[in-house]
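Example protein
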Amino acid sequence: MDSENLRPLPGAVQARIVRKVALRLIPFLAVAYLLNYLDRTNIAFANLTMSKDLGLSETAYGLASGLFFVGYVFFEVPSNLALHRFGARRWIARIMVTWGLVAIGIAFVNSPTTLYIGRILLGVAEAGFFPGVMLYLTWWFPRTVRVRLIGLFMIALPVSSALGAPLSGAIIEYLHGFFGLAGWRVMFLIEGVPTVALGIAAWFYLTDYPRQAQWLAPGEREWLHATMAAEQRDTAESGHTSVRQSLWDARVWVLGFVYFGLGYGLFALSFFLPTIVAGFAESFHTEFSTFQSALIVAIPFAIGAIALVIWSRHSDRTGERIWHVALPTLLAAITVPVAMYMRSPAGAMAIISLTAIGIYAAFPVFWYLPSTFLTGPAAASGIAVVNTMGAAAGFAAPYLTGWLLDLTGTSKAGLWVVGVVMFASAIVLLAFGRRFHAQPTAEARPTEASPTPRTVP
């Protein structure tokens, strides 16, 4: 049905439709993202015992962590274009099953070289999942509610670490010897299986576009399809629709640089926080078991999850985006190096929690920005390019942090680098912020001016 032939629908009914879609899609995608990040970063806990078994130095461990992003970077854009062509349902299912199988396979590596190969293959397999979901959400949710819903989806990022840390620690400590395997091998095995199962479920559960959603009433489908089509037309008129246009737009590369800074902080924290906590034994003469260390590591991520939800809702209420990315990024940049100068474990973890708040609060608002000027194939390629640059930080941060740790014997130098990189990304965003389209500042809910079917069952 053409949107010109549709009359307005009360905001409460529109909100009900959006809520129905959110309840259908967000929990499923959030669980998938939780598994995605867990399978990517659980090597941080494996490192507590794996390095001794495989003979890894901190530099070698950092290399293994970062090599994931080599395969990821090269296949990110092609994978997202494939998702746009073949549909999210098929492609997300394919990605999940593939990475789950590779994650299970890493349980059986027997040397640094096979670990390196496994991490590269895991990156190839995971490529396209996150930017694909970001693209997918632009097909389903109006702009006025998109940041808070991206926030609900992205809460899986800190929750993955908050829950994954004690889970991984418990498996390593208490299931050591299960199946005759070392605890870290059991961890990779157990945490890879749910990904395969959920990937199979995705084939049957997800729906590519609103017009295909049989789980919506006909009138609801028509309203959502017309609303999203109208938004895409608006973006196409003032932004880009082709792959070539997106690659030539300086805003894509600005966002890529900003995301590199955010990613640098995230991956340094994710891959080395367990090592930092383990280092408390020498710095503060403390003794924690593997499971106790995992519980301590979980604290900043749990706090970050709460901040993420609150901050994304505040951004939608105010309609402001640039400062909602820059301010938390600056908070993280300032606090991350300070943590290592605290005189107690509690003080260090309190400052690291502020860093986590800054990092995680910035993410959902940041991912709103590409949709302000990209749609269609341009969105598929542009979002993938931005995420690829962030993934490059995933190689640089673990490797450089590990190298500096080996070189200096302390985490301080590596965390100063993290702070500088994040500070630079915030300044660049503020400098170029006016080049992004201004967005509505009304309370984030569908408006009565939105098109709707003549009748909604």
Notes: The radius of gyration is 22 Å.
